Amino acid sequence: MGEDDEKQSEKRYISSEELRLHNTPSDLWISIQGKVYDATHWVKDHPGGELPLFNLAGQDVTDAFVAYHPGTAWSLLDRLPLVGYLSDYRVSDVSKDYRRLITDISKKGLFDKKGHITFIVLCHMCLMFAAVVYGVVCSPSVWVHLGCAVVLGFLWMQSGFLGHDSGHYRILSGPLVNRIMQVVTGNCLAGISIEWWKRNHNAHHIACNSLEFDPDVQHIPVLAVSSELFRGLTSYFYERKMSFDGVARLLVSYQHWTFYPVMCVARLNLFAQSVLLLLSNKRVQGRSMELVGLGVFWVWFPLLVSYLPSWGERVMFVVASFAVTGIQHVQFCLNHFSSSVYVGPPRGNDWFEKQTMGTLDITCEPWMDWFHGGLQFQVEHHLFPRLPRCQLRRIAPLVRELCKKHGLPYDNFSFWEANVRTIRTLRTAALQARDLANPVPKNLVWEAVNTHG
């Protein structure tokens, strides 16, 4: 027997069924391009946090791996214990084309061509912040103060877009300056923990529009994008049951009317979630820096507001700035609320399909890209999260053609149409909630038996 034959006979082959059995935090296997790795002890060191690995445990994760990692990451897999080889490893035609497209984009260097967006946005943010401080401190005019609140709202939007970019790829030269930029633009300037955002956003990307695993569609008791949420599903992100009780039923029944007002104050929820994470016992990278950053925000923002001459103007300033930033919260919702949702964990073998079915693009002219911050190309962003936003428009036709080839949806609508679709989705769920409320059910068992419409 030759040496190659001896090595072949020593290989351990594992079926997908056996792989699925190793899907717990204490026994976590994953498969990448046919090789099965034991990632149990790697979880605590994974730069993307533990949730992506937990959510995809016991599966082939090749498509997710190539989406999130540069070519240099392949050598790091050698650090993981190799368990064996997947005996029934197959690659679908969609995945083959998807991986081929990633390779083509990488060869063109598009992942590294970030343009000058970061510099331009930072310059505008500095000017906007200076204008807000000057207007509040030096002008007695209430109209100037109102204008400053509007400018501050747009400033927070731009800081959100920049934080979104820096969470997916390095917007600056090195990891340290990139990290400092994240904390400055997120924690210090906007009062939102960048670590909270990364934890939330990574879970969203991995489990796009899963009602049980994607936190971006888990807004009970205030909003519900599907009547499936009325069954009291479990949120594996928040680690609690999403109870559809009387309060939730009342709020959801009118959600198509309350959606925009809720978005105007949605920032309060982000403040609360940031603090809750940083004060929890969950693993948080740079917890002290994060807390200091939030402390900076809660010093400068109340101090700035205190310079306004009356409580009426102070309330006006806060409400107006939050309401303007609410546009960004609406943008987040437009990309997903009216798209397909599903119940259960994400699956690694239909990555391309789930990302395209759970997202939609917003059509706009290039001169409006500043307003959307890259979110208008949500389909492309979900498929290529490492791609700088200045390249998303360039690859959109390639993604459209790939979707057309495989009979997959490629949804794109105007900003107005996307709003209409979102409100229609919320209204449909609201009417279904009202059905359940007449007569008022005594418990969820009663609801399950009497659900209709």
Automatic annotation (TrEMBL):
Subcellular location: Membrane
The name this protein goes by in its record: Cytochrome b5 heme-binding domain-containing protein
Gene Ontology molecular function: metal ion binding; oxidoreductase activity, acting on paired donors, with oxidation of a pair of donors resulting in the reduction of molecular oxygen to two molecules of water
GO-annotated biological processes: lipid metabolic process
Keyword NAD included in the entry's annotation: no
UniProt-listed PROSITE patterns: CYTOCHROME_B5_2
Family: Belongs to the fatty acid desaturase type 1 family.
Gene3D superfamilies recorded: Cytochrome b5-like heme/steroid binding domain
Pathway(s) annotated for this protein in UniProt: Lipid metabolism
